[in-house]
Specification:
With about 300 residues, the protein is α+β, with helices and mostly antiparallel strands. The chain contains 7 helices and 17 strands. About 30% of the residues lie in helices and about 30% in strands. The strands form 4 sheets. Strands 3-4-2-5-6-7 form a 6-stranded mixed sheet, with helices on both faces. The protein has a 6-stranded antiparallel beta barrel with strand order 9-10-16-13-12-17.
Length: about 300
C-alpha cells in the first residue's frame, strides 16, 4: 500500500507496574474522568479495553496485560502496545515488578511514560522514584533525560489530564499509523464462553476496518461477525484502527494474544480456520504423547 493510504490512528496504551501500585485504580480514574457519556456509563459492560478522548484526540487503553499476558503476546509476535505507562507508587518506590515491567517495555521498544502514583500519601517521595528509575536508565526530563514523569493520584483523580496530554505528545512524535481501507487485522485482548451468546471475544483492530457480517479467522477458530459492541456497551457496525470491540459469531473461544484476520468470503475463512484448528489439534496430540513418553522414563 502507498504510504498515502496511511492515516493517523489513536495510540494503544497499557499500564504496567508492581502489585498494588495502583494500575487498576488509575485505569478507573482515567475512564471516570474522561467518559462523559452518562447514558452509556450506566451499563457496566465489561470490556477489557476502552477509549477516551482528550482535546478531540482518542487514546485506547488496554486493561488486561499483566506481565504474563504481555510476555505471551510478545512471544507470539503480537505487538499491541504503542506506549507503556509505568505506574510506581510514590510511597513504595521501585519494586521488583517495576523493573520487570520496564524491561519488558524496553525489550519491545515501546516508549515509557512514568506515572508516579499515590502522591496524596503523606510519605510520598517522587524524588526517590526519579532517582531509582534513573539507575535503570529512565532519566527524567527534569534531570536532562528523555523520560516523561507525571505525578498522579489515582484515588483523587489528580494529574489525569496531564498524563493524557503526555500520551498525546508522545503519540505526535511517534505518529502511529494504519490503513483504514484494508481488511481488518489485529489481536484478541480477551475471550470467554458466554452462556447466552456463545464465544465472545474482545478484539483490538490494529489495521483496517472491521464490519458486522465479515468472515473472520481468529487464532484457531473462525466465523462470521454476528454483532459488535463497543466499550460503552453500544452496538456498532464498524470498527477502525485502534478500536476495541467485543464480537460474537465465532465457532469457538480464541485465546488472548491470538491474531485475527478478516476474509473476503466465508468459505475461505472456514477453510483457513479449519486448517488451523486441525494443525493445533495435531500439535496438541504430539505434545501430550511426548509428555506420556517422558513420564515413562521418569
Ligand atoms: P494489582 O492488579 O493487584 O497488581 O494492583 P494494582 O496495581 O491494580 O493496584 P490497585 O489499583 O488495585 O490499588 C492497590 C491499592 O492502592 C488499593 O487499595 C487502592 O485504593 C490504592 N491506591 C491506588 N491508587 C492510589 C492513590 O493514588 N492514592 C492512594 N492513597 N491509594 C491508592
Ligand atoms: Na491490587
Ligand atoms: Mg489491578
Amino acid at each position: 500500500d502507498a504510504p498515502a493510504d496511511l492515516g493517523v490512528r489513536p495510540p494503544v496504551v497499557t499500564i504496567m507496574g508492581h502489585v498494588d501500585h495502583g494500575k487498576t485504580t488509575l485505569l478507573d480514574a482515567i475512564r471516570k474522568t474522561k467518559v462523559t457519556d452518562t447514558e452509556a456509563g450506566g451499563i457496566t459492560q465489561h470490556i477489557g479495553a476502552y477509549q477516551v478522548e482528550e482535546n478531540g484526540k482518542k487514546v485506547t487503553f488496554l486493561d488486561t496485560p499483566g506481565h504474563a499476558a504481555f510476555t505471551t503476546m510478545r512471544a507470539r509476535g503480537a505487538q499491541v502496545t504503542d506506549i507503556t505507562i509505568l505506574v510506581v507508587a510514590a510511597d513504595d518506590g521501585v519494586m521488583p515488578q517495576t523493573v520487570e515491567a520496564l524491561n519488558h517495555a524496553k525489550a519491545a521498544e515501546v516508549p515509557i511514560i512514568v506515572a508516579v502514583n499515590k502522591m496524596d500519601k503523606e510519605n510520598a517521595n517522587p524524588d526517590r522514584v526519579m532517582q531509582e528509575l534513573t539507575e535503570h536508565q529512565l532519566v527524567p526530563e527534569a534531570w536532562g533525560g528523555e523520560t516523561i514523569f507525571v505525578n498522579v493520584s489515582a484515588v483523587k483523580g489528580e494529574g489525569i489530564d496531564e498524563l493524557l496530554e503526555m500520551i498525546l505528545l508522545v503519540s505526535e512524535v511517534e505518529e502511529f499509523k494504519a490503513n483504514p481501507d484494508k481488511r481488518a487485522q489485529g489481536t484478541v485482548v480477551e475471550a470467554e464462553l458466554d452462556k447466552g451468546r456463545g464465544p465472545v471475544a474482545t478484539l483490538l483492530v490494529q489495521n483496517g476496518t472491521m464490519n458486522v457480517g465479515d468472515p473472520i479467522v481468529v487464532g484457531n477458530t473462525f466465523g462470521r461477525i454476528r454483532a459488535m459492541v463497543n466499550d460503552l456497551g453500544r452496538r456498532v457496525k464498524t470498527a477502525g484502527p485502534s478500536t476495541p470491540v467485543e464480537i460474537t459469531g465465532l465457532s469457538d473461544v480464541p485465546q488472548a494474544g491470538d491474531q485475527f484476520l478478516v476474509f473476503e468470503d466465508e468459505k475461505k475463512a472456514r477453510q483457513v480456520g479449519e486448517g488451523r484448528q486441525a494443525r493445533a489439534k495435531e500439535a496438541e496430540r504430539k505434545q501430550s504423547s511426548k509428555v506420556s513418553l517422558d513420564d515413562l522414563f521418569n
